[in-house]
Amino acid sequence: MKKIGFLSFGHWTPSPHSATRSGADALLQSIDLAVAAEELGADGAYFRVHHFARQLASPFPLLAAIGARTSRIEIGTGVIDMRYENPLYMAEDAGAADLIAGGRLQLGISRGSPEQVVDGYRYFGYEPEDGDHAAMAREHTRRFLEVIEGEGFAEPSPRPMFPNPPGLLRVEPHSPGLRDRIWWGAGTRATAEWTAEQGMNLMSSTLLTEDTGVPFHELQAEQIQRFRDGWAAAGHTREPRVSVSRSIFPFVDDRDRTYFLRESASQDQVGQIDGGLARFGRSYAGEPDKLVKELAEDQAIAAADTLLLTVPNQLGVDYNAHVIESVLRYLAPELGWR
């Protein structure tokens, strides 16, 4: 059995060709899609976070709203750029959203990806030492993980406005169990090994910022195996989770063919990000029987316990619910995912 959810970038643009034309559209439609996905039997609703862009940005109001409207589906991010985050404020927001959702948050965090502006985290008030923004992201992460454990660390005032419990105080509200539901978005095999050392779950997308010449799914499967080996070596007691994301579009009506016929010939691509080689995974589009054969050969999907379907959110809630339903109905049973 495999958990199947969706991942939305929450794009919006004021164009007559978009069903999502404003920030309000992106937010409200995200809630509606999560509700629809839960009704269809999907397992997760995940959202990308980008700053200075016509996309979803501040995730916690959205996650809390979805938590209040749903009862079963996992709610998460893929991913929050930790270069921009105040760890203690984030711990408060995450704790509140998780309590509203009844402990269903699955937070994907990471160093982040190239953004819309140069060094955007500086506008948020963060200046990395020696210009090392990746180290700053990891330090923010270390502090966030420490705080959500729930141990007290702040000295209480001798003259508090309200009575305090005994001992040092912690950030409130605290949500027990949230620490085990933090994922790191890893772009390399080495980062996956670091993720295992930190005791975080592994989130891997359709992009790896390295290339060894093998097909994307094989390189990603190696990344996942290195993560699992690192987890065992670290001696963690719980079972870790691993997610991969894919663009999958079964052709079950004319709309699917109109939108994605070109993607039926999709292949891996090699490009550059931040001056280094990167390998991009292919999309899957075609008749269901063709996709069943192709997806059965994807080693990384087989190695993961969670599959996130990247959805074209600007095509609207109804169409994206149709895509999710098509995967659940026509592909998942044939592949043993359900």
Automatic annotation (TrEMBL):
<dbReference type="Pfam" id="PF00296">
    <property type="entry name" value="Bac_luciferase"/>
</dbReference>
<feature type="domain" description="Luciferase-like">
    <location>
        <begin position="9"/>
        <end position="256"/>
    </location>
</feature>
<protein>
    <submittedName>
        <fullName>LLM class flavin-dependent oxidoreductase</fullName>
    </submittedName>
</protein>
<dbReference type="InterPro" id="IPR011251">
    <property type="entry name" value="Luciferase-like_dom"/>
</dbReference>
<dbReference type="InterPro" id="IPR050766">
    <property type="entry name" value="Bact_Lucif_Oxidored"/>
</dbReference>
<dbReference type="InterPro" id="IPR036661">
    <property type="entry name" value="Luciferase-like_sf"/>
</dbReference>
